[in-house]
Structures are given as C-alpha cells and as structure tokens.
Amino acid sequence: MSNAWKIYLLAIISFLVGTSEFIIAGILDKVAADIGVSVSAAGQLITVFSLAYAFGTPILMAVSARMERRRLLLYSLGVFAVGNLIALILPGFEFLIVSRVILALSTGVFVVTALTVAAKLAPPGKQGSAIATLVMGFSTALIIGVPLGRLAASFYDWKLIFGVIGLLGLLAMLIIVTAIPQTDGEAPVPLRNQLALLKQPKIAIALTVTFLWIGGYSIVYTYISPFLLTVTKLSEQGVSIGLFAFGIASLFGSKFGGFSTDKWGAPRTLVSGMLFHTIALVLLSIAGQSPIIVFPLLMLWAFTAWSSGPTQQYHLMSLAPEASGIMLSLNSSILQLGMAAGAGLGGVIVEQASLNSISWIGATGVILAAATAATFFGVSHIRSRRKAVENSLAKTSA
Fold first, then answer.
1. What is the DSSP code (8-state) at residue 36?
2. Burial, 381: exposed, middle or buried (Cβ in 10 Å; 0-12, 13-18, 19+)?
3. Which pLDDT does position 309 carry in this prediction?
4. CA quadruple 80, 83, 87, 89: dihedral positive or negative?
5. What is residue 204's predicted lDDT score, i.e. its pLDDT?
6. What average pLDDT score do residues 116-121 get?
7. What does each C-alpha distance from 109 to 59, 147, 379 come to in angstroms?
8. Closest of 249, 236, 211 to residue 341, by C-alpha
C-alpha cells in the first residue's frame, strides 16, 4: 500500500473522530431537551470538551513522547471507544460531561499523532497537502457525520449515535494495526520547554491568530442548529440539508487551503481566507433569515473558514520545524481554547441578546485574526528584505 493511501486511511479515521467531536453542535437542541437543560447550558458541553482537549493534550503528548506512534494511535482510539460508550450507557448530564472529557483527551492525542505521522509519510514539499488531507477527514465529518447524526436523532435516541461511533472506533484500531507502519517517537520535551516556545514573538502571534480565528468561528458554529431552526425557521429536514451543504463546502475549503498553501504560500492563503470568512459571517447576520439565501451563505462560510485550517498548521510547523509535534500540539490546544471561549461567549450572547447576534460577534473575532496575521506577515517580509539587503552589502564590501 502506498503512503498516499495510508494518509487517506488516517483521514478516514479522522472522519470518525471528528464526527464524535462535532456531532454535539448538530444535535444540541435535542440533547438539551432530553437531559432537561437550556440550549446555552448544553452548549457548554463543547466548552468542557475544548478545555479538556486544550490542557490535557500537551501533558499527554509530553508523557507519551517516546512512545512508538502507531501504538499511541491505538491507545488513543481504545480510550476514544470507551468515551463514546459512556455517552451511550450512563445517563444524565454529569456522565455526558465525563464522556466529553474522555473523548477530548483521546481525540487530542490521536489528532496530533496522526498529523505528525501523515507529515512523515508525505513526500518532500507535500506536507501541506498531507495535513490538508487529514483536515479533509474532519471536514467529511461535517459533510456526512453531523447531518446524518441530526437525521438519525430525528428517528432514534441520539445516544445510539455515540454507541455506533464507539464500535467503529474499535474497527479503526484494526485498520491502524494492518495499514500504518511503526514510527519512532520523539525525544520527550518538558512542558516548561514547550511553554517556552510561547515566549518567541512569532509563535505567540501565530497562536493568537489561531485563537481569534477559531473563537469567532465557534461562537457561530456551536449554535448553528438553533440558529437555523429559530432565526431562519428551517424544518428538521432543512437543518440536515443545511449542515450537509456546510460540510461539503468545508471539504472543498480544506483541500483548497492545502493546495493554495503549496502553490501561493501561507501568508496570502491565510489572510485572504479570513477576510472572506468575515464577509460570510456578516452576510449571515444580514440575510440569515432567508431560507433561500442561507444555504449559499453557509457554504461560503464553511469554505472560507476551513481553508485556513491546514494553512495555519503548516505555517506553525514552518516556524519551528525541529519541534513540529510540539507546535501541532500547542496549536491544537490554542484552537480548543478558542473553541471553548467561542462556545462560552456564544452561550452568553444567546442568553443575554439573541441568536441573530452571534454572527456579528463571530465576524469581529475573525477580522481581528486577519488583521493580526496581515501585520505579522508584513513585518516579517520587511525584516526579510532588510536582512537580504544587509547581506548583499556585506558581500559587496568584502
């Protein structure tokens, strides 16, 4: 089996992991009604997941740094299956929180490990596309997993979705054993050394971009199902179709992001993607009440939002290539903190203002991310040109 197919197999498993993470947003209103809490309270299940992911992943990756990568993938999928089965078997909001914490920790380890394995399997110069392929797996969760989960929850108990995902997680372990080669771990890096990377201005700024970008996205996406039901006034079937359209566009967006990064570079891809992301959210605020217009707007939003994912991850790896695994782990943690902040702020907005306000606030976060990224790349370009001129003058004088 070629390395390209192995990367696609990792992407398929990423689809499964992504479905378990994203499905809550697709069935949020049903979960809230079943366990007897408000929609904004149920939205905090996403906050809990993101916080556990953000703080737990760096610790677990540091502890398991020397572990052979295929074994680590298997362990993470085993814990992932347990987390899903807890959601199926044990009742109540408290056990659902426990399930989300376990899923967050296992998902974090799997995602970071799979990204590093895919980057090593990719040929030189194609790492951006390899990362985009794995991101495509998550996008496919939005295309197929979330709308199918929404549809299934309309006919069956929503808990059954997690039971099926858990069983498929066990099947994924078999695929890993038979298809993915063993890959050496890395030298363990103490957490204080990982955090020391944050003292480097270029890395701190890049991670700030991740936080603002995904925070703005999360404010809106966490409550997209209630938005479509209440503001746009779509039917159950209409919401499933809307989520399906969103997912298809996110698939093309992530692939375009990887292609554009390889062809035109991270700066142009990242800044332009975030600008269009902002425009999409503003348009959703203005015209989201129209059932006809909302579908192309959802697709524009998904395409532009997901085009930034592989670009930002590749950019961060390029800032510290000798510590690519750590950079991916830090970025995943900051991304999840942004998700938690977005879900939390979105809950406050829904309670205190209205569902229609979330896209305005989300757009503000994304445009701040675009401005930060543009400033960073602009300053870096000026410094690079100045250094090139200085080197040229030094050679001339010599």
1. T
2. exposed
3. 79
4. positive
5. 87
6. 80
7. 10, 26, 34
8. 211
- The pair of structure tokens assigned to 213 is 């970008």
CA distances from 344 to 36, 40, 335, 367 (A): 19, 8, 14, 19
Please state which of the ranges 7-11, 151-155, 315-319, 387-391 shows the lowest mean pLDDT.
387-391
Per-residue pLDDT band at 388 (split at 50, 70, 90): low
| Token pair 């499964």 in the structure block, residue | 16
185: confidence class by pLDDT, cuts 50, 70, 90: low
Q: What is the pLDDT of residue 387?
A: 63
Q: Which domains does the chain have, with CATH numbers?
A: 3-393 (1.20.1250.20)
For 126-157, give the DSSP string.
-HHHHHHHHHHHHHHIIIIIHHHHHHHHHHS-
Q: Please tell me the pTM assigned to this model.
A: 0.75
- N- to C-terminal Cα separation, the chain: 54
Report which residue type is found at 235.
S
Question: Residue 160: CB partners within 8 Å, gap ≥ 6?
Answer: 88, 152
d(CA 211, CA 220): 15
Tokens of 355: 């569902």
Residue that the structure tokens 């579908």 belong to:
295
- Give the per-residue pLDDT at 386: 62
Q: What stretches of the chain adopt beta strand conformation (E)?
A: none
- Any idea what DSSP says for residue 68? -
Query: Considering the chain, what percentage of its residues have pLDDT values greater than 90?
Result: 19
Burial of 6 (0-12, 13-18, 19+ CB in 10 A): middle
Q: Give the pLDDT score at 325.
A: 67
Match 């990756």 to its residue by tokens. 61
Q: Which residue in the block uniquely carries the two structure tokens 């390889």?
A: 262
**Sign of the torsion angle spanned by Cα atoms 320, 118, 251, 159:** negative
The pLDDT of residue 393 is above 60: no
The torsion region of residue 265 among left (phi > 0), alpha (psi -120 to 50) and beta comes to left
